[in-house]
Amino acid sequence: MTESAAPGVLNVLFLCTHNSARSILAEAVLNHVGRGRFQGYSAGSHPRENQKPNPLALQVLQEAHIRTEGLYSKNWDVFAKPDAPHMDLVITVCDQAAGEVCPFWPGQPATAHWGYGDPSLVEGSDLQRHEAFRLTLLAIKARLDVLVALPADKLARMSLETTARGLAKT
Of residues 98 and 153, which shows the higher confidence score? Predict the structure, then answer.
């Protein structure tokens, strides 16, 4: 798992409970819009055994022309290991994961919570369920577009947490 970001690249870890929908969407979107300045990762606090990304999450990403290769569900403990990539920012994207005790993240990255409703819980027709995933993707992308457009001084270690937390209000 050892990876090192290129100099000047910010590593961002998105956390959710199962790592099958919202965190997967955020990882893929950040890697798509990050302009080489950001590297997105995702994990879950309690992924189920043999958990895989939700097929609807992968479908809406593909429809938005966002790559899905390499996306897989994993436990957040992977990123607390000594050989894990250093994270600059850890963002919870579901309320349940935000309320859990997180592992110790090496380097004490900035943290923020960006809550999104779980599109996989939406009941209804296939079209309604698809639309829930599409709307979640759009909401995540809107916030990440703002993050990646920020000037370097807003992404410096001391102001990154304040900046990321402020984006939760957008």
Answer: 153
